[in-house]
Amino acid sequence: MKITYLGHAAFMLSENGLNVLTDPFLSESPVRNNLNCDVKADYILVSHGHPDHLGDTVNLASKYNSRVVSIFEVATYLSKKGVENIAPMNIGGKLNTEFGYVKMCQAVHSSSIMEDDGRIYGGIAAGFIINFFEKIIYFAGDTALFYDMKLIGDLNKIDVALLPVGGNFTMDVDEALYALDLIKPKIVIPMHYNTWPVINADIEKFLKGAETKKIKGVCLGIDESVEI
Ligand code: NI
Ligand code: MN
User: Fold this and answer.
1) pTM of the predicted model as reported, rounded to 2 decimal places
2) Ligand 2: distance of its center to the CA of 36 in Å?
3) CB 20 within 8 A of CB 43
4) pLDDT tens digit at each of 228 positions of the chain
5) How far is the CA of 177 from the centre of ligand 2 (A)?
6) Residue 28's domain is classified under what CATH number?
7) 167: containing domain
8) 74: CA distance to ligand 1 center in Å?
9) Cβ atoms within 10 Å of 28's Cβ, excluding its own
């Protein structure tokens, strides 16, 4: 399978002509100047309602009839916005799909949806454990370090962990390195850093730290891919 980094927390998982997109913050992303933001996905997984994660979900899902997987409250919002193909879930749930399954798991973070006239309750923030054609991907979403990541590592044989490392809104490099001891992935790909100065991160330090734990760290540039 192929993992492509579209910047911030947006990844595309691809295999057998099937595409799964996470948190499609594309057209408003400062790291995607002049890059293509019109991407087609069979599924869009939305971790929470914040604008840097909900991103282009409404437009892309409406255009391509992507199946949007999100927590109940965000799904309800999307449905009101005209998105027809939705799979509402909640923490602890599992959705079986043609590529395997999506489990929704805990994240320690807030969630709300920004509208011009105020904020809409977004439930709580989530992460996803994705079985994508037998490869197990843990997409942490926005989260602080929390000790129950150990449960995620104990109950799932994680091939690739996609972890936020930028700090300020999420865990930082040092905490993400601690998280690796709990999750025990084979490969880690950092995300949610360098989009704005407030979440700048020392990625060299992160990659070296992962290496000392015998975990392969892969730092992807924008629109760069890795074959797993
Ligand atoms: Ni957030
Ligand atoms: Mn965020």
Assistant:
1) 0.98
2) 21
3) yes
4) 999 999 999 999 999 999 999 999 999 999 999 899 999 999 999 999 999 999 999 999 999 999 999 999 999 999 999 999 999 999 999 999 999 999 999 999 999 999 988 999 999 999 999 999 999 999 999 999 999 999 999 999 999 999 999 999 999 999 999 999 999 999 999 999 999 999 999 999 999 999 999 999 999 999 999 999
5) 19
6) 3.60.15.10
7) 2-227
8) 13
9) 12
Amino acid code (one letter) for 142: D
Ligand 1 ion: Cβ-proximal residues, 5 Å cutoff:
50, 142
Q: Specify the amino acid at residue 5.
A: Y
User: How far is ligand 2, taken at its centre, from the CA of residue 75, in Å?
Assistant: 18
Distance (angstroms) between ligand 2 centre and the Cα of 52 equals 5
- Number of separate domains in the chain: 1
Please give the Cα distance from 49 to 74 (Å, whole number): 6
For residues 127 and 129, give the distance between their C-alpha atoms in angstroms, rounded to a whole number. 7
